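User: Sequence in, structure out. Go.
Assistant: Echoing your sequence, followed by the structure tokens.
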Amino acid sequence: VITLAFVVAGAAIGFVVPALAIPFAIVGFVLALVNIFKKQPSPALVIAFAVAQGIFVGGLSRIVEATAPGIIFQALVGTAIVFGVTLALFASGKVRASKRATKIFMIAGISYAALSLVNLITQLTGLNDNPWGINGTSIPGTNIPFGLIIGPIAILMGAYSLVLDFTSVKQGVDSGAPSRWGWKAAFGITLTIIWLYVEILRLISILRGSN
């Protein structure tokens, strides 16, 4: 709740000054790596990450909202539904992380990261001028954007990432981990929620033809 409150505060800043979206996307990425590889969780770094990502999300949302009015609300509702359903299924014991599923998730995650890197390079070099890059480009021979295929897969990956986050929290509680590790858990859940929101925002934007 604390980290998400800082995300919202950052989003308010980004919404007012959307030009900050790209710079703080980079700052948020760097802080994410620092938090991931830091041995001991740091509340200050987790909060700084939340603010930076909030500014990025707020700026991105403002830009997309200008071309697709109401899309922010739709993306927020979609994110809340995915989070709520995943949490309910996990709490009921109907969904659990498994070694096989996690292995598939890791392979898919690496592939997705590689695709995102290629996408970024094509946009920065001008090879693809579509606002969503490869995701907004149609599959050869069709009028179907790649994003309509990639988006749902990424959202499913985000949902499974939440399952891994919830599993980590449960294991920490069951083993009596020190309370400071709650910040590590909060970081993981916040990172996944932001990822889900951006993917849902992009998918809805492509569906609405605002790319």
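User: And one key feature?
Assistant: Helices lie at 2-16, 21-37, 43-67, 71-92, 99-124, 147-174, 181-207.
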